[in-house]
Amino acid sequence: MQLWPVGAWSLRLYYFWYFAAAGIYFPYVSLYYHEIHLDGAQIGLLASLAPLAGVLLPPLWGLLSDRLGWRKRILITSVLTAAIVAPLVPLLGSFTLLLAIIVLLAVVLSPAVPLADATTLEWLRGNGGTFGNIRVFGSIGYLGSSLLVGILFSGRHILWLFPLYGAVLFGACLATLIVPGQHDRAHLSSGEGIRSILRDRRVTIFLALVILGYTSFAAYNTFFALYLKELGAGTSAVGLATGIATLCELPGMVVAGMVIRKFGVKPVLLAGMGSLLIRWIGYALIHDYRLALLFQPLHALGFASFYVAGVTFIDTLVPGRLRSTGQTLFTVAFFGAGAVIGSNLFGFLFDRIHGSGMFYVAAAIVTPALLGLIVFVPNIRADEPAQ
User: Fold this and answer.
1) Which residues contact 215 (CB under 8 A, 6 or more apart)?
2) CA max distance for the chain
3) Burial zone of 279 (CB within 10 Å; 0-12 exposed, 13-18 middle, 19+ buried)
4) Are 83 and 166 in contact (CB under 8 A)?
5) Average pLDDT over every residue of 329-353
6) Cα distance between residue 267 and residue 272, in whole Å
7) What is the pTM of this model?
8) Could you tell me if 51 and 334 are in contact, meaning their C-beta atoms sit under 8 angstroms apart?
9) C-alpha distances in angstroms, 22 versus 83, 112, 143, 169, 219?
10) pLDDT digits over 232-278, tens only?
């Protein structure tokens, strides 16, 4: 029996706390690694572990969810384990041990987003509403935490990152206890799952273009804080830059849903990928960290709106009985495969051509992905049935 709050509000609470933890971690973890004297290649390797787990494991979680109905059980185990493990990181004395525990965190957190998205989409199918109106609470949590810890993490206080990260993840764990249960479990025939989804040429091409385009995003996700530091910024400026970007996610997610309903997913996808190109070129050209703040509102399109459109695109094309598997494949493409390549590539480049050169490479990578979306991806409205 579920206690209040249920439905939409329980999902909003989960997204809020999970992404509040992410706002403590992702904008600042490269500064933490720099503080403990890791080089760019080591930082890139560590940053690639979560995306690598996101490539290898979410399809497994999706199949377990779709076949066995374990979606909620996996979510609870995922976030609880991470909350317990994260505070142990400062106790480690070698890069090898650090590598091992970051691998463990990457593994246990790999189902946290795609299975939450699948749960949300299932609930919306039966109750109405838009994905963006629920997922936007994750952006609110990310915004608040990233701004607060930007002030807190000055100097050696950055070493509190992992204990604080684990503490906030407990909030997400509590929220998982009250999210809606799974109802769309299906008895799938042998071989039905990933292969049957990828037989749809529209899905395959779209996922390939997302992987290519969001390889470039690793330059921002992994090295943006160090890039700003190169330009003279402190941790409070990193927090401000992250806060501006995240604040712009809020209208980006809400408006994306309305635009998709009226015009379909393709205009939103093109705006999102095109904004990445503008943003990376902007970062490459500037020499004052304060000017970088001017490009942060583009995050609304390049991350928030594109994410909502991508989730909607996949959910429209994939049969309901394969919803979890479909969303894990999109997560692999958006957060995983390209980020594995990009984190290591940009870690290598950061040590050699520094931040501005790295973003020129990012712009070159995203260009063919944008052209591919223009030519190959059809426009689909959210209310079109899957075929």
Assistant:
1) 338, 339, 341, 342, 345, 365
2) 58
3) buried
4) yes
5) 89
6) 9
7) 0.78
8) no
9) 12, 12, 10, 9, 17
10) 998 889 999 999 998 998 888 889 988 998 999 999 999 999 999 99
